[in-house]
Each structure stands twice: as C-alpha cells, then as structure tokens.
Amino acid sequence: MEKLIFATGNEDKMKEIRMILGDLNYEILSMKEAGIEADIVEDGTTFEENAVIKATAISRLANCLVLADDSGLEVDYMDKQPGIYSARWMGEDTSYTVKNQKILDNLEGVPEAQRTARFVCAIAAAFPNGRVITKRGTIEGIIGYEERGTNGFGYDPIFFVPEYGKTTAELSPEEKNEISHRGRALRMLKEEL
C-alpha cells in the first residue's frame, strides 16, 4: 500500500481526513507518524499558495504523495480577517477561547445580516513527479453570539450554520465532514486521486 502524508500535526484534523479519505488505497500518515520534522514558512498571500508551499516542501523530503491544507475563517465585517492568518492571529500560542471572544467582541451589537462569514480550505496535492493540484472548499455561515458546542476545534464554537441551526462545534463529526470546507475540498481532491 502506497503512503500518503498529510502535512499537519493537528490530530483533530487527521481524524477528519481519515474519515473522508479512508477508503482510498493509501496508508494515511501525519508528518509526525512519517517521522518528518520540518519548519515551513508559509509566506503565501492566499490559502492556495500556503497549501502548495507546505505540500511541495514535504513531498521533496518524503518523495511520496503529500497533501497539505491551509484553512481559516473569513469574517466579512472584519474585512475577511483573520483569513490566512487564522492559526497565528493574535499570536500562535493564543487560545481559541481568547480568539473567539475577540471576534465576538468585535461584532458586539452588529446585526445578524452583517455577521456573515465563511470557513475556507485549500488543499494541495504534491506528487513525487512535481505535479501539483489544488482544490478549494468553503462553507458559508454567520458568527454566533457566544461559543456553543464541544465537537469541533478552533473557531467552530462561534461559526453558526443557519440551515442546521447549530454551530459547527455542535454538529456530529459525520454532519460536519459532510458540509465542512475541509470535507468539500477533500472530496473534490479524492475524485482526482
């Protein structure tokens, strides 16, 4: 069985990836499981550029198929911030409870119609022969008024999906994978693999 490395150390993300790509004929490994340590500078200006930077750097090291994603939250009222800086917004060691509260504070008193936001995920697949493909998935929603739910991670507790009446942290893992930005991008990529 060929191996596929997903360039992340995030275990929550790896669970989602394995659920969605589990039926591919690949052994799916995180960088840690593959024994790869690399400090990659993500200095792209788009989600796609950052995903390609990560995937190609690790593919050169591992000489196998590598997938990498760059994902984040775009809040329209905040000029699409935190955007590509979602993970490092307010500092890499700042907890998401603090980051989520900052967004809620920034939107205090803002009517629901202006609380629009989306999760964006760009996934790059870098093949050992140098070929690279990218796919982008999004999910539209609004910023809620408080943190709700424990199933998600990151900004999930404040991202409300009106058609489900829940935050993405209140959805079951199966529901979330069905509609999430990462789930959509992974399924598009899966069709090409």
Shape estimate: globular
Helix % is 25-40%
Order of helices and strands: EHEHEEHEEEEHH
How much of the polypeptide forms β-strand, as a percent range? 25-35%
Care to count the β-strands? 8
Low-confidence stretches: none
Total separate domains = 1
What is the CA-atom radius of gyration, in angstroms?
17 Å
User: Which oligomerization state do the chains in this entry correspond to?
Assistant: single chain
Largest sheet report: 8 strands, mixed
Sum up the structure in keywords:
193 residues; alpha+beta; Maf protein; 5 helices
Please provide a written account of the structure.
There is one protein chain. The chain has helices at residues 11-21, 47-62, 96-106, 173-179, 181-192, and strands at residues 2-6, 26-30, 65-75, 81-82, 116-126, 132-143, 159-161, 166-167. The protein has a single domain (2-192), classed as Maf protein, CATH 3.90.950.10. It is α+β, with helices and mostly antiparallel strands and 193 residues long. Helix 1 (11-21) packs across helix 5 (181-192) and helix 4 (173-179) packs across helix 5 (181-192). The model has no long low-confidence stretch (mean pLDDT 94). The protein is 30% helix and 26% strand.
